[in-house]
Each structure stands twice: as C-alpha cells, then as structure tokens.
Design goal:
Alpha-D-Glucose-1,6-Bisphosphate, Chain A, domain 4
Length: 169
C-alpha cells in the first residue's frame, strides 16, 4: 500500500531537518498515539549526511484476529534513515525486530519551504504486510495509524521548535 503524509512545521527547512536528527527531540516524542518513546540507537553525522537508527514499539491495542497472528509485545522495529542536508531529503526503511518476513516499508521524506517562514514535510512510501487474507486490512490500519501519529508528531515537534527558538532568544 502506498502512502503519503504531510505535516506543517513552524520553522525553516534547516531547523526542521536539524530537529528530526536531534537526540533531544526523541525525549519529547512520548505523546505519539500508539507508540512508546523512540529509542535512538545510533546517529552518524557526517556534515551533509546524517544516518539514524531509531527503535519504535507499538503500544496500542490490537483486535483479536490480529493477536492470533502477531504478539503485540513483539511489534517493534528499527527505522533506518539517511538525511541529505543539501537536498532536505531523507530516505528510510523499516527493519522489523520480529516478523521480518511479514512487514516491509520504504520511503522518503522531503522538506519544502512553505513560503511563509514554515516548512512542509512530505513523507511518501510503500508498506507491505504479508499476512494471508488480512494483510491489506492490516496495511490500511497501519497507514491510518501513521496519519494519526503524524498529526500528533507535528504538534509535538512544532512546540519543541518554538520552545527551542524562545530559549535561544
């Protein structure tokens, strides 16, 4: 299933790019719907390129048919991403800790100046859940969850950007 998510942030492209690779931000991302606090496993900053490995865990509720196929406590994954600061583009892929044969997700994130001092962040990707009979249903549920998470993330990151700006003033 292909997906596209858009978020708006109160900051420049550079500020938003820097925010999403700042370890301090990850400590503030605990209010995201159905996700535990992200765990920054690795950050390699080479100036124009920043590579991250971040572990996430699903903390929401699953329907009984899904729990027959997957164990909720085992829904954890690592997002591996590479930011190219010159273009504002991030490429990512998801590596499932458990059930790696059942989940594949790849995509990119682009940052665009919105012309009013803010930034629009556009994530696009492809999610494939390989579970007979219900894979498509799971994909739709995951993408719906991603949309909810993106809305909350936009609010939390926006507040973080504003607070950082105020602290530096």
């Amino acid at each position: 299933m292909n997906f596209r998510l858009e978020q708006d942030f109160p900051g420049t492209v550079d500020e938003v790019a820097d925010a999403f690779v700042d370890p301090d931000l990850f400590a503030h991302l605990h209010d995201i719907v159905d996700l535990g606090r992200p765990d920054l496993l690795e950050k390699v900053d080479e100036g124009d390129t920043v590579r991250l490995r971040v572990r996430y865990a699903f903390t929401g509720e699953l329907s009984p048919p899904l729990t027959a196929v997957v164990e909720p406590a085992r829904i954890t994954w690592v997002e591996v991403s590479t930011l190219d600061r010159r273009t504002g583009r991030t490429e990512f892929h998801i590596v499932a800790d458990h059930y790696p044969d059942r989940l594949r997700c790849t995509g990119s994130v682009e940052l665009h100046d919105d012309g009013a001092g803010g930034t629009r962040r556009v994530a696009a990707g492809k999610l494939v859940v390989s579970v007979p009979l219900i894979g498509g249903k799971i994909e739709r549920a995951v993408v719906d969850g991603l949309a909810d998470q993106a809305a909350t993330q936009a609010r939390v990151v926006g507040e973080w950007l504003v607070s950082r700006r105020q602290a530096q003033a």
